[in-house]
Amino acid sequence: MRFPDITPELRQKMPQLRGRLVADQSLAAFTWFRTGGPAQAFFTPADEEDLSYFLQNLPQEIPLTLIGAGSNMIIRDGGVPGVVMRLAGKAFTEITVEDGTHIRAGAAVPDVKVARAAADAGIAGLSFFRGIPGCIGGALRMNAGAHGGETTDVLIEARGLDRQGKPHVFSHADMGFSYRHSSVPADIIFTQALFQGRPGVPADILAEMDEITAAREAAQPIKEKTGGSTFKNPQGAKAWQLVDAAGCRGLVVGDAQVSQMHCNFLINRGNATASDIENLGEEVRRRVKDNSGIELEWEIKRIGIA
Question: In the annotation, is 278 catalytic?
């Protein structure tokens, strides 16, 4: 789909903008599935001040969508109208150690780098981030977790900007965490977070991370084009077991397939469209409901025009 170019109008409204703003940017390369259409406009802010300026001057009627690592996302084939924003660069990828056992990380920092930085500093309790294929901003938004740990277990506070560019600081209580969810308003763009660990021995922490890596490689199709866990675990059940029991392991739609290794993962076998992947997911949901009566909820975020 070809969108009208709105970037000249935006640049006219924002003469002091320092970040990169381009039209008709393909988004497939920004997702782990490697599928999807373009962004009508694509913006990467220079820093938090530039981000605030952009938000203050962005007309309210123009939709704004934030993407991160693209690991837990389907961007539909028709693309995304309005502005798609991605935080990148030094301003959003810094990690610092504070007060001995605190880690401050920008929202664009990959989760695995937080785990590594904590290990290097002898800070235990953050190793579970090694098993999460995303960035800190996404971890805050969905209370990401793996291998017995969740973001809620270690977060002290998070910082973000609202749709008008106003800064906010959220305490742990303000985040309203629950399973794979936070209740922070959807328009908040997280920019950084502060985490609490505990004193540890670097060699022991690294050994724990190696165990997490080995477990992932043995059980998950991490070398495939995938989006991570597709469906949330229902109360008292495991999504993968429900998918398997419904006979969906290895199920194919187009060039998308339910992983043979772990059937709560969908994979792009090479030439799948975003529609193939989403339709496969919906077919899995239908079969699981018919077999068990349980309606699986998507964990992967789906955005854009089909």
Answer: no
